[in-house]
Amino acid sequence: MSSLEPFINILVLLTVLSIAAERATTFFKLRNKSLREVTASDATEKEREHRITVRSLIMGIAVAILVKANLFEIWTRIDAPWDTLGWLQQSESKWVRRRQPLASARRSTH
Questions:
Q1: Deepest in the core among 7, 59, 88, 93, taking most CB within 10 A?
Q2: Residue 56: which region, alpha, beta or left (left: phi > 0; alpha: psi -120 to 50)?
Q3: What CA–CA distance (Å, rounded) separates 80 from 101?
């Protein structure tokens, strides 16, 4: 593994999560006429931009919760950060609730 590969892994993962949040924000922005159309006044345009920013923040948090993206766990597994995502993990032949990060689970079994 090259020395840049772990950082590329994290960059790719965070980019995918960011794009998902941006697409969700755009979806909801386009459904709301007051957010979709640019206003003529600077004051109302700033208010519109603020509402879009707040929605973007909410969508980012929602995406992170939906996929259980924990930045601290991601940094502990920079070799395979996607292994830290998800609320469930496969154990034997069934899906079970994930109780601990995979990195610490693997260390405890060895």
A1: 59
A2: alpha
A3: 12
Between CA 49 and CA 28 the distance in angstroms is 14
Instruction: Please state, as a whole number, how many other Cβ atoms lie within 10 Å of the Cβ of residue 43.
Output: 8
Inter-residue contact 9 to 78 (CB < 8 Å): yes
Whole-angstrom Cα distance, residue 75 to residue 26? 29
Q: What is the pLDDT along the chain (110 residues), one digit of tens a residue?
A: 578 888 888 888 889 999 999 999 999 999 988 888 888 888 888 999 999 999 999 999 999 999 888 888 888 888 888 888 877 766 666 666 666 555 455 554 44
Tokens for 93? 């032949």
Q: pTM for the full model?
A: 0.70
